[in-house]
Specification:
single chain; about 150 residues; mainly alpha
Length: about 150
């Protein structure tokens, strides 16, 4: 594979790493928001129960108590749904983190391959240069010998 093609693949991998990082960060942000919503629902439930307790101490009708209890059940259902959503977001964060890590590994491997190819190219160029120097030295040696034989 040509060095330019490898470089192109390396740059594409780099973009993939950046995109995977962005996706991971976005998933973390969404997870944080989902956790915040769950905490807010828990807090709202506590406040609502405190309100029920306060009004209960003053006396409630059965229908009012039933409405409060029905609403608490709805809040609990919302909490359950939010907890399920939170689990999905936690999975998404783990998944996007894994993809980001995998893309980093692939990018680093491509970088190492490029380095290896560059070292091989330098080694090959050094070898060619050494061959040329050896040929030149041999040529100079024989030329000097020939010149000495011509004078003798």
């Amino acid at each position: 594979m040509a060095a330019n093609a490898l470089q192109l693949v390396y740059e594409q991998r780099e973009k993939q790493v950046e995109q995977a990082l962005h996706t991971y960060q976005q998933a973390q942000k969404e997870l944080f928001e989902q956790r915040s919503q769950l905490q807010n629902l828990h807090q709202y439930r506590r406040q609502y129960i405190a309100q029920l307790s306060e009004k209960g101490s003053q006396g409630l009708t059965i229908s009012t108590l039933a409405k409060y209890q029905q609403f608490i059940v709805q809040i609990d259902q919302g909490l359950s749904n939010q907890q399920s959503t939170l689990v999905k977001f936690e999975y998404a964060v783990r998944n996007t983190k894994r993809k980001w890590t995998d893309s980093q590994i692939a990018h680093k491997a491509m970088g190492l391959l490029l380095e290896k190819k560059a070292r091989e190219k330098i080694k090959l160029e050094d070898k060619k240069e050494q061959q040329l120097l050896d040929e030149f030295a041999t040529f100079q040696f024989f030329r000097k010998k020939q010149a000495e034989q011509e004078f003798n």
